[in-house]
Amino acid sequence: MSRNSDIILTALAPAIWGSTYLVTTEALPAGYPVTIAALRALPAGLLLLALTRCLPPRAWLGRTFLLGSFNFALFWVLLFVAAYRLPGGVAATLGSLQAMMVILMARGWLGTPIKAGAVVAATMGILGVGLLLIGPEANLDPIGIAAGLGGAASMAAGTVLSRKWQPPVSALSFTAWQLTAGGLILLPLALIVEPPLPPLSATNFAGLIWLSLIGAAATYALWFRGVARIEPGAVSMLGMMSPVTAVLLGWVVLGQSLSPLQALGAVIVLVSVWAGQRANRPSIKAATAGHMTPRARNA
């Protein structure tokens, strides 16, 4: 499959993640972020484990739980803290810093060179997300800012380490391992810090099914498949599709207004995503190295 096809398939994941805000606010009970996160991750992971029939070997348990924490447990908890304590635009803009963090982490952990074009594209994307989402009423809460930055760093670390540690299994199995690990970390935390869920309606169940099966199992399988095939800097830029989708869904489904400045921000984000793919395109030497086996890459 061509690189362009890999990019399109990977971009579907963050584009679908953009529906999370809409589904959470319109279809799920409020006030249970950790419980919802656990119910999003654990059933999806167990379902994929049942389908793939592939458990992580003992040697991979430590890495699996670390990745499950970075990509799901820690990331989702910090994301919800930031969302509760900051205006949505500020939280999303802090999250967009992930692209810049991935560039730096990939340099340290993978030896990937820092390209000026990739830095410019990431900076453009952060500016675009800010124009798209930040309003004049934005207030800055120190704890919220720390959570937003921590969430971005967690997802960035998970993305780079998922590229560095490639087990000799399918992307679906790798996704199953991480989702299950993340869910097992979140479940006891939810039981400790949150009250039991109220009786769920049909709408609540539909929202949970969407977030778990589509928003977790299917999309993260596409995401980790892309992480294994595309350069980390290019993958991280695709994550900026999420706020664009969220704003468009709010405009189309909820009738929210879309100002000219927001429209400009969306265009800037899309241009930055395109520029990021070009800037992070591997050289012929790197592309040849990319055909190494997972065992060779892990050596």
TrEMBL record:
Positions of the EamA domain: 7-133, 143-274
Highest taxon in the source lineage: Bacteria
Cellular compartments annotated: Membrane
Keyword Transmembrane found: yes
Annotated GO CC locations: membrane
Keyword Transmembrane helix: yes
Protein name: EamA domain-containing protein
Organism whose genome encodes this protein: Aliiroseovarius pelagivivens
Organism classification: Bacteria, Pseudomonadati, Pseudomonadota, Alphaproteobacteria, Rhodobacterales
